[in-house]
Amino acid sequence: MTTQTVQAKVLEPLIYELSSSGRKADTLLPKLDVPQAEPLPDHLLRDSLDLPEVSELDVVRHFVRLSQLNYAIDKGFYPLGSCTMKYNPKIDEDTARLPGFAQLHPLQAPETAQGALALMYTLQKWLSEISGFAGCSLQPAAGAQGEYAGILMIRAYHLERGDTKRTKILVPDSAHGTNPATSAMAGYTVVNLPSDERGDVDLAALRAAADETVAGMMITVPSTLGVFDENIKEIIKIVHDCGGLMYMDGANMNAMLGVVKPGELGFDVMHYNLHKTFSTPHGGGGPGSGPVAVNEKLLPFLPGPIVAIVEESSFEDGAPLYGFVMPEKSIGRLKAFHGNFGMHVRAYTYIALHGAEGLKAISRHAVLNANYVRVRLADTYTVPYNRMCGHEFVLEGRFEGVPDIHALDISKRLMDYGIHPPTNYFPLIVPEALLIEPTESESKETLDRFIAAMHAIAQEARETPDLLHSAPHTMPVSRVDEVYAAKNLMLCCQVPSAE
Ligand SMILES: *Cc1c(COP(=O)(O)O)cnc(C)c1O
Fold this sequence. Notes:
Elements: H1 56-69, H2 90-96, H3 99-102, H4 114-131, E1 135-137, H5 143-160, E2 168-172, H6 178-185, E3 189-193, H7 203-209, E4 214-220, H8 232-241, E5 245-250, H9 262-265, E6 269-272, H10 274-277, E7 292-294, E8 306-311, E9 321-325, H11 341-377, E10 393-396, H12 407-416, E11 423-424, E12 433-436, H13 444-463, H14 465-469, H15 482-487
Parallel strand pairs: 2-3, 2-4, 4-5, 5-6
Antiparallel strand pairs: 1-7, 6-7, 8-9, 10-12, 11-12
Helix pairs in contact: 2-11, 4-11, 5-6, 11-13
């Protein structure tokens, strides 16, 4: 690896700077296939519209260059903890683009969209089956929205019984940040539970907090420390005994598929992240899909509409008629129309092609890969909860005797090795946290390359720390002030002129 050399960066001109008056591409427009309309009246036309005048080649180079500046899972290793940046099979994209799915109109009569409804119905069933629950709604448009739906269901459940004294949700300090945020948004007081020295929920603290004012508990499984709580059954019992319900954040189900069913453990409600576990490309801000699954208790409260069979053997071939129904005491709608349907198609394809055995293999490989990397890095880095992990683990991005090296320096330097940084400074309970999730789709060779890079960086930290402080050296832009950059977005593709 020639990562020590600082590459000279030749900044290519942007598309506006390439503009030259009168230059254009030859355009061959397709034949008109709609009735010709009258041209727009003059007062609606602008002559001040400043568009770049460029050739076809300029346009092609501009966009291909931009696409290559982007980092993506299709380009390299992406161990961003808690985000499950795994490979998304291209066949999922093909099925989502089938015209019968992609060109459906959301207002189309259900009778004319039976294939799509059958797919949603089956996906509801499969997700319920995978986690051992009684029913599922595909409405929520993100993991966090699934959480919100879950907590609203818990609230509706208590209020329906006239139980108005429950004002608290218990949240361990190893939970995903969205868990306390969700509880607070739903109007609950968040009670923070500490972790013990093994990274499990502190049972004494839980027992002390579990009283008749507790509506429920939200727990991320595996936790953001990457570990599966060894006392999970005891935790569920304590909360149930005080009348609360149990919410499982199942965004990272790729650690548990075919191995553990949360419903059978005693959870009342959970959400999935289809865009993590069940393959929709994500990371750029959407779309998302966070279905919620529930046990019998919460079934009537599911957000809707959900897909149900409205008439058995409705067709000549015996096929049922599917339709949308609102669960009896539904918390209501969370999303326009029927959720992010394209993601339902991807998840359906992904589950159908893997089958039960394939899903189990996903989790085995996710867990194996994370543990392999954990054990290989524990000789060089401090791994605070160094025990069998799930899909991810956390290490400290700092070294004894090297006081001015931080997690961020290690992350930035990794970019010079062609690797996307892990999640930084999360979970909050580990100092200089680097949360590493290799995912199931990486080969041993890729993991070994990552491990070698992490070992090399640990050595550089001691011998040439400045190399880390000024990293990255090989990227189109070097280290930026992230706070300033986030607050002062430059969304304009035209470089402001000096005048
Ligand atoms: C990603 C994630 C979420 C939030 O999902 P979004 O779709 O980003 O809202 C919640 N919990 C955990 C554990 C996650 O990893």
